[in-house]
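Q: Structure for this?
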Amino acid sequence: MANTDQTASAPELDSKVDTSESTISIRGMHKWFGDFHVLKDINLEVTRGERIVICGPSGSGKSTLIRCINRLEEHQQGSIVVDGTELTSDLKNIEIIRSEVGMVFQHFNLFPHLTVLENCTLAPIWVRKMPKAEAAEVAMSYLERVQIPEQASKFPGQLSGGQQQRVAIARSLCMSPRIMLFDEPTSALDPEMIKEVLDVMVELAESGMTMLVVTHEMGFATAVANRVIFMDGGEIIEQNEPNEFFTNPQHDRTKLFLSQILSH
Amino acid sequence: MTDSTTSSHYAPGTHPDLPPPRRTTGVVGWVYKNLFSTPLNIVLTLVGVWILYLIVPPLLDWALLESVWTAENRTECWDKMEVAEEAACWAFIKSRLTLFIYGFYPEAERWRVNLSFVLLIFAILPVLYDKLPGRRHWMWYVAAFPFLVGWLLVGGLGLAPVETSEFGGFMLTLVIGVTGISFSLPLGIALALGRTSNLPALRILCVLFIEFIRGVPLIALLFVASTMLNYFLPPGTTFDLLMRVLIMVTLFAAAYIAEVVRGGLQGIPKGQVEAADSLGLSYWKAQRLIILPQALKISIPGIVNTFIGLYKDTTLVLIIGMLDPLGIGRSSLADAQWAGLAREVYLFIAVFFFLCCFGMSRYSLYLERKLHTGHER
Ligand SMILES: Nc1ncnc2c1ncn2[C@@H]1O[C@H](COP(=O)(O)OP(=O)(O)OP(=O)(O)O)[C@@H](O)[C@H]1O
Ligand SMILES: [Mg+2]
């Protein structure tokens, strides 16, 4: 499983991998911003229920990679298949995939003009066509799960950062996604709020959710992840199961990165 | 000084919640704080009072206390005053009141105008009070309102037809103002969305339209409406002048609204679109449920500003020969029996416009307060 050297693998070889179990399958994927080659030959198979942590220096393309998975960014080469649906410019496919893939952002991105409850019921009502009462019931159950049911009628602007991020997680969960993407969910938070968000994420991981998490919280990675992926310069440099990854990094760049973040 | 405790009376962690210190409450407190708190403030207050003293009593005398309300013509009016021409002669306005309200709308059909006023009030109600029972159904009525009133005023389909050239006075102002406001908002929003869209052709089209309309004075557009449009239409077709004016005024306001709304759209963080996208909302649903409600909220002051401008600009139709209140006023002043009473006429018209515009301005403040949802980051 520990496929430590991705640079040598060509897309042709990878296509032999049995993908029937893969819920996300990225092959030979490239992306450019204008002339800037931001993602280079990305190959990644994610099986159902797998928890992957992605780390790497700033600007290495971590956000761009997970944003490609729900098409917030468009890739130009290679293929991305999510739950059997290939991401192309076909809008219907994109909407189907987006409603199956939840995303949590660094800056929460709650809708400030709607209450916490309305934030959570909006997509189920308008995308899933769920009756209002049922959507509210589902939303309340998820708000309870992230432990803020008492804030349901408040507006996001009245909550703390940690509470807002938990609402954002609940909002995504209300769509009953099969996959959850997290883009540095705790890096905009004060230290004392990080734990409350991580606790929710750990609980989510234990429930069997497929998760891709961009984070530098190495404690979370060791506790929860099946696999840690290290990116640098738009490439996947190295991937391994967490203990092996932290104690026995293979590449110089990985070692350098780990020494930098662990020295803090 | 105060009886509130400062420190050391409570053990750490046991400090109770105390009421806030008594500040400037009550009338005396308010007067002191707002009018006499500093020497500069005292001077400004006194100057203000002095200016009010210079203006208000003479104005009250002229407009109310000394004014004359019944007379047949201006000499009779002046005879009734202590000093001729030193007070307002409202008898003149009274004698022209129906003209000011209805223009030359046929007397037998004026109930249709009155009914339209009533319908207008009912159309404004659901916009003002969002707690109105059955507001959803009201909104259908609001949407149907312009067409319903259009039919009422113009006639046809069972009602006696009335030429739009007989429209005039406040009724004409309201027709142009309300039509302009209710159609320019959706059109302006559509233009703003077009201008910010990803489709180059649509974007360029919207930019061209907006910049062209904004670059031309409204008067020029009205002249185009009244004269040149005929050259572009096939010969023999007649196209109602009022209709042309309505279209021009609407397009003109829409271009301004589009720019105001575009400003609002730019004020929405990119993360909002991304969050909406990531939940699977389509472009239109995201715009309608997430982006526009927030963008319009930011744009309220600018939108209402545009509406107030539009409302006052309706007086420009005077130039192409339509009898709005100003036009009625001018033609009334040409009557030898009443000539020279310009102050009364213009004050009367000014008060009418002021009340409407002030109402819109207060409504905008009310909306801003109502839509405020806590501190945003
Ligand atoms: N919309 C964009 N247009 C152009 N360049 C972009 C855009 N978004 C990101 N980039 C560039 O692409 C590179 C990768 O960005 P990305 O946000 O994926 O990095 P990251 O690994 O998430 O970094 P960080 O840890 O700082 O979030 C960066 O150099 C960034 O400047
Ligand atoms: Mg990032």
